[in-house]
Design goal:
single chain, mainly alpha, 2 domains, 0% strand, globular
Length: 222
């Protein structure tokens, strides 16, 4: 917070490793810390042009990252806006906590991320379908939703419109609504997260025990 206001350009940000680590970490992109040329391009292109790099990537976190700092053509620089930068600093702290949790349990990291991000997506002013496409472009949220809805790994190979139809159908079966706006309610997020965690635990159990052991467990429960 003492230094981000001094940053005037994309070059300034990528040249300061500590600031860049906070900036990337706030969006779950800490893995790109050493990809300076790539990150510089993301920031310098901005988000307003259709051919901007962040708009051409499937992972929409890059677009959010670029937009947060406003270095692109036609954009207003945001590093001097203290409230905006405080939100990024806080998001970094949350992400670091999630990473620490994920070191022992990756499913809990994803669950914590969902608690933080799903409500924002639900409350956005985008159309119902756009919200779904945005979710599909956010790997952690997509992973959670696929698991919670019982979708197989091969699901991602379907045409994007077919994925949208299937996502909506599965969510309707689970909650009675296909609209992501339902997750503006914290109780709805909690129920979805619980389903995700339960399905994840079942999958982990199936990967660690043999079919014979599974049969014995089932017989013992009878």
């Amino acid at each position: 917070m003492e230094n981000i206001g001094k940053v005037q350009s994309a070059e300034d940000l990528v040249s300061d490793r500590r600031l860049l680590q906070v900036a990337l970490g706030a969006f779950g992109l800490e893995g790109d810390l050493d990809n300076r040329f790539f990150v510089h391009k993301i920031l310098e292109d901005g988000t307003q042009a259709d051919d901007a790099l962040s708009n051409r990537l499937a992972d929409k976190r890059y677009r959010e990252f670029s937009d947060a700092f406003g270095f692109g053509p036609g954009a207003a620089r945001k590093t001097a806006l203290r409230t905006n930068m405080e939100e990024i600093a806080q998001a970094n702290l949350s992400a670091r906590f999630e990473i620490a949790v994920g070191a022992s349990d990756e499913t809990m990291r994803i669950a914590l991320y969902a608690q933080r991000e799903l409500a924002d997506l639900a409350n956005s002013t985008s159309s119902a379908d756009t919200k779904w496409f945005d979710l599909m472009g956010l790997p952690p949220l997509r992973s959670m939703m696929e698991t919670a809805l019982g979708l197989p790994p091969s699901f991602a190979q379907l045409d994007i419109d077919a994925q949208l139809v299937e996502f909506k159908d599965r969510l309707f079966q689970l909650t009675g609504s296909e609209d992501l706006a339902q997750f503006s309610d914290q109780n709805a997020i909690t129920e979805l997260t619980d389903t995700y965690l339960a399905r994840s635990q079942i999958a982990q159990l199936q990967n660690t025990i043999s079919p014979a052991q599974t049969a014995l467990i089932l017989l013992g429960a009878v």
